[in-house]
Specification:
- The chain has helices at 13-22, 60-68, 121-124, 130-143, 148-155, 165-172, 188-204, 229-244, 262-269, 290-308, 324-332, 378-384, 389-405, 426-438, 447-456, and strands at residues 2-3, 6-10, 29-30, 38-41, 52-54, 72-77, 81-84, 90-93, 97-102, 207-208, 218-225, 249-253, 272-276, 314-315, 337-338, 345-348, 353-355, 363-365, 368-370, 409-414, 442-444.
- With 470 residues, the protein is of the alpha/beta class.
- Strands 11, 12, 13, 20 and 21 form a 5-stranded parallel beta sheet that branches.
- A hairpin with a 5-residue loop joins strand 7 (81-84) and strand 8.
- Helix 13 runs parallel beside helix 14.
- It is elongated and about 70 Å long.
- The model is unreliable at 107-115 and 461-470 (pLDDT under 50).
Length: 470
C-alpha cells in the first residue's frame, strides 16, 4: 500500500533542488530532519542518524565515514546499470562513476553516541552520485554546443529552408541500424529518478505513491508544428478529424513566416490551443542576444493572441532548438511552458547526432515548466529513419505503451505538411487517435492543461523552507 513519505535533506540548497526534481513524479512531502522518514544527505560534513540515505560524492570526509564503518569502496567507470521500474520495463543508465561498497553488513540501529552513525550499506548508500549525474545529463542539453554545420547554415543571410526539402532530408538521413533502437536505453534521467525513489522505499519501508494525472496512469498530449502555409491549409481538416474523436490538440505556428489566416487560427484555438513557433521559423534563436530574443518572444506572443483571440501560453522552438537563455527569456515574456526539448532523437538538427533530455516527465528549468517531446517526432521517424506512415504510428504506439508503464507523459509532435497526412495516409493517424481515446487510464490534455494538473499534483511543501539545508 502506498504511503505519504516525508523527505528531509542535508546539504546545499542547489543540490536539494536537484533531489526534489528527481522525485517530482511521486507524491511526497518535504520536512525537517526530525519529522522526516528519510533524510537524503549529499556533500555534507555531518550525517545525522540512521534515517540517512547517503549519496556518494568526492569529498574526503565521505571516504572517512566509509572507513569508520569498515566499508571498502570500489569505483568503476562507464558501466551500465539496469534500473527496474516494473515487471516489464527496466531503464538503462551509463553513469560516469559506479560506486560498489564491500564490507560487513552493519545494523541500522543507532549507536550509544548520537554523533555516531552505523550504516547498512545495502540500504543507506546509493551506488551513483545522482546529483552529479543529473547535472551531467541536463547541462549539455541546456547549454550544449551546436554542430559546426548547424551554426554555418543558420548564420547565412538566407533562410535554411530555401534549400529543397529532399536535399535537407538527405543531410538528415540517419543510419539503418538506428531504426530498431531500444527506447528504454534513452531515458537516463528517468533511470536516476527511479534509482532514488527505490532507495527511499527500501530505507523507509514504504512504497511511494505516484502522482496521478487526475486519477489516470498516464497522460497523452497531441501537438502539431505548422511550419508552412501548406501545413496551415491542411490543419483545418486535421482539426476536424481530431474533434470527431474529441481530442483537444495544440498547434504551434510561426507568426511572420507566412501569412496567417485568422479564421483558421481561431478554429485551431477553439477546443484546443495555439502556441508560438518562433517568428520566421529561424534556426538562430540560440545565438540571439537576450534582449533581442525577449523582444521577439513578446512580439510573437502578442501577435498570435491578437489573431487567435485567445491567450497564448506555450512556446516551441523551430527545429526544437533549446538553450538556457531561451528558457530565461520565455519566463520573462510570461509564457507558461516550453515544449522544445526532445526526450530523444536519432539525429537532432542542432547537434547532427543522437540527442535528448532522457525523461518523459515535465521538468522545471529556471522556473519554467519544460514538457519534453517524448514520443520521437514524425520528422525523425519519417525522414531520418525512413519509416512509412503506418510504421511511424506503430512506433508511436510502442513508445506510448512503455511511457504508460512508467507513469509518464506521451507528447506527440507531427507536422500537417508531412506524408503522414497525405491523401490516403490519414487512416494511420486515425489508428493513433483510436488508441489514445480508447485508453480509460490515459488523460488527454493540452500542454497548458497538463501544466495546471502538474502544479495541482505537485509534491507537498516543495519550498526550500521545508528542506533542512546546512
Amino acid at each position: 500500500m502506498c504511503a505519504l513519505v516525508r523527505i528531509g535533506f542535508q546539504g546545499k540548497a542547489s543540490d536539494a533542488r536537484v533531489i526534489k526534481e528527481l522525485l517530482s513524479p511521486w507524491n511526497i512531502s518535504f520536512a525537517g530532519p526530525e519529522q522526516a522518514d528519510i533524510v537524503i544527505v549529499y556533500d555534507c560534513e555531518e550525517v545525522i542518524d540512521d534515517k540517512a540515505l547517503i549519496v556518494p560524492h568526492d569529498r574526503s570526509d565521505f571516504y572517512d565515514l566509509l572507513r569508520k564503518q569498515k566499508l571498502r569502496l570500489e569505483r568503476s567507470f562507464h558501466e551500465p546499470i539496469q534500473v527496474a521500474v516494473s515487471q516489464q520495463t527496466a531503464l538503462t543508465i551509463w553513469p560516469e562513476n559506479l560506486y560498489n561498497y564491500e564490507g560487513p553488513a552493519a545494523s541500522t540501529a543507532k549507536e550509544n553516541s548520537s554523533t555516531e552513525l552505523t550504516l547498512n550499506h545495502e540500504l543507506s548508500l546509493l551506488k551513483v552520485d545522482v546529483v552529479k549525474e543529473y547535472r551531467r545529463i541536463v547541462n549539455p542539453i541546456l547549454d550544449g554546443k551546436s554542430s559546426t554545420l548547424y551554426r554555418l547554415l543558420t548564420s547565412l543571410p538566407i533562410r535554411y529552408d530555401i534549400a529543397p526539402k529532399k536535399m535537407r532530408d538527405l543531410v538528415m538521413r540517419g543510419k539503418r541500424d538506428e531504426k530498431n533502437f531500444n527506447y528504454c536505453d534513452k531515458l537516463p534521467l528517468d533511470a536516476l529518478r527511479f534509482m532514488v525513489a527505490k532507495a527511499v522505499e527500501r530505507l523507509s519501508g514504504k512504497k511511494l505513491a505516484r502522482r496521478a494525472w487526475k486519477g489516470k496512469n498516464t497522460c497523452y498530449i497531441v501537438t502539431h508544428d505548422v511550419d508552412t502555409k501548406q501545413g496551415l491549409a491542411r490543419a483545418a481538416s486535421i482539426k476536424k478529424l481530431e474533434e470527431r474523436y474529441d481530442v483537444e490538440s495544440a498547434w504551434y505556428v510561426p507568426t511572420k513566416h507566412y501569412s496567417l489566416d485568422s479564421g483558421t487560427i481561431k478554429d485551431l484555438a477553439n477546443h484546443g490551443e495555439v502556441g508560438v513557433h518562433g517568428a520566421q521559423h529561424s534556426g538562430n534563436l540560440t545565438s540571439l542576444p537576450g534582449q533581442k530574443l525577449l523582444q521577439l518572444l513578446c512580439e510573437a506572443k502578442q501577435s498570435l493572441q491578437k489573431i487567435s483571440g485567445s491567450p497564448v501560453k506555450g512556446f516551441r522552438s523551430p527545429l526544437l532548438q533549446h538553450k538556457s537563455t531561451i528558457l530565461e527569456q520565455l519566463k520573462k515574456a510570461d509564457y507558461m511552458y516550453d515544449t522544445s526539448v526532445p526526450t530523444w532523437e536519432p539525429k537532432h538538427p542542432q547537434t547532427m547526432s543522437p540527442f535528448g533530455i532522457g525523461t518523459v516527465f515535465p521538468t522545471l528549468f529556471n522556473g519554467l515548466v519544460e514538457i519534453p517531446v517524448s514520443t520521437v517526432q514524425d520528422h525523425q521517424l519519417l525522414y531520418v529513419l525512413g519509416l512509412t506512415a503506418k510504421e511511424t504510428v506503430k512506433r508511436w504506439l510502442s513508445f506510448m505503451t512503455m511511457i504508460k508503464e512508467i507513469g509518464g507523459c506521451s507528447v506527440l509532435l507531427s507536422h500537417p505538411e508531412y506524408r503522414l497526412f497525405d491523401l490516403g495516409n490519414t487512416s494511420a493517424y486515425e489508428d493513433f487517435l483510436n488508441h489514445v481515446t480508447s485508453d480509460s487510464q490515459g488523460l488527454l490534455a493540452t500542454p497548458s492543461q497538463l501544466v495546471e494538473v502538474w502544479k495541482h499534483d505537485a509534491p507537498l511543501n516543495p519550498g526550500s523552507s521545508a528542506v533542512c539545508v546546512r
